[in-house]
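Batch manifest, entry 17 of 40.
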Amino acid sequence: MYDDYNDFEDDQPVRRIKSNIKQQTLGKRILEDAQSYLDQISQGEHTFLINILRELAQQDEYFNVWADQLDQPVGSKVANDALNLMHFWQQIHAYEDVKAFNLLDVINSEDFQKDVLTAFDAMQIDEAHKALRRPVIVEAFKMYKLGCYAGCVPLLYAQLEGLLTDVLIQQGFLKQNGTKFVDVYKIVPGLKGNEIKSLWHKSKIAAELNPYFAELAAYKMDSSSNVTSTRHNILHGTDVSHFTQARSFILFIWLFSVVSFMSTVRA
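Output type: structure tokens
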């Protein structure tokens, strides 16, 4: 169902990556366990889950995407980010009264933050830059807890792109030249001097590095996703309507999905 998580083989004339077997097993197990949990979930809990997601969709339409993904027949392929959401949904069992469970509060939990940072720490990227990036992610946790979503949302969008850049540089697919980034293998056509100009250029390169990158919602060139389609205007200051807890939550789930997979990548 999601065996492509292991698919590090492709026919591209570029250097393929290796996997960190221990971390790769952990990342795959999270998805497997989440899928198993979803397949065996009681009808009552499943209805409760879908109803909560539909309610939250009033705050951000992307929750309907998750609801649709998680409301498919057993055996259907479920998106990576939806399965990672299910991994953290299981915190509901810590509550005697499930009505007291607030899904958006999951980000403030020790388990969520530990899982994100553990996966981040396992990433193989430039150590000096990594040491600078880690406290930025911790700062995002703090802003979320304080309700500072106007700071949290752009920071998370930026980190999602920055992490991809770090990995592509580490793997030799991007080369930094001052403030510019060069497409080493000339994967993206039509670039002047092979200079990368956008996240979508990086996403195309990443999919050549490993096809599973195309399964990560944060890097899909999907104009039908409101989280993706509003990114540019949010970061350039023309969209000020999405600095919300709901959008921050979505981006945090994407952040975990990203670092969970990236922690498997080895030079």
